[in-house]
Amino acid sequence: MYSKKQISLLVLIYAVVFTAALLGFIHYETKKRANDFSDLKSAYELIVNLTGDAISSGYCQWDKMYQATTTPGNNDFLKETLKEIQRTSAYIKAAYLIRHQPVFSEACFSPYSQGESTYIDFKIFDDHGLKLNYTQFLRIELNDSAILADLERNPSLLLSPTNIPTGIFSEKACSA
């Protein structure tokens, strides 16, 4: 049979191998979760920026919107347009006009987070991007829970970070 010394050595070897395997598993799971979070963050940023691009191009670089926000008497058109913007995507919780000069740089829109909400502010231009409304801008509030629920339900939306532009919530230059 085995001596006490051999049994102790065998137990020590098993303990070392078990500990090494356990540490390897923990390291693998930690790395996997970090990558999953990075992919989720990248996909979320992409959705925010694509929503911004769509709203900016579709509504904020438009003669009718520019004229409606720079001349009085267009409240009905503006109310209907704001409702339409909200209906364009389940990711948009609210859309409203802010009567204040846009304070972000030369970008057409600027996404940002405040508290637990994500917003996108949009400058309002004419069709050609030559005239800017200096007295008000559009703000949308995103439905973060809808975005995250879709990402959770549909993992194919999670793209590799190498295919996604980096920089969370960067201001976007106008397409015009």
Features:
single chain, rod-shaped, 4 strands, 50% helix, four-stranded antiparallel sheet, alpha+beta
Describe this structure in words.
The protein has 176 residues and is of the alpha+beta class. 50% of the residues lie in helices and 14% in strands. The chain contains 4 helices and 4 strands, in the order αααββββα. It has a 4-stranded antiparallel beta sheet with strand order 1-4-3-2. A hairpin with a 2-residue loop joins strand 2 and strand 3. It is rod-shaped, with a radius of gyration of 26 Å. The termini are far apart. About 6% of the residues have low confidence.
User: Spans of 5+ residues with little confidence (pLDDT < 50)?
Assistant: 159-168
Helix share bin? 40-55%
Tell me the radius of gyration: 26 Å
Give the number of DSSP strands.
Answer: 4
Mean pLDDT over the full residue set: 85
Apparent shape: rod-shaped
Kindly report how far apart the N and C termini lie.
86 Å
Order of strands across the widest beta sheet? 1-4-3-2
How can the largest sheet be summarized? 4 strands, antiparallel
Compressed to H and E, one letter per element, the order equals HHHEEEEH
Helix/strand class: alpha+beta
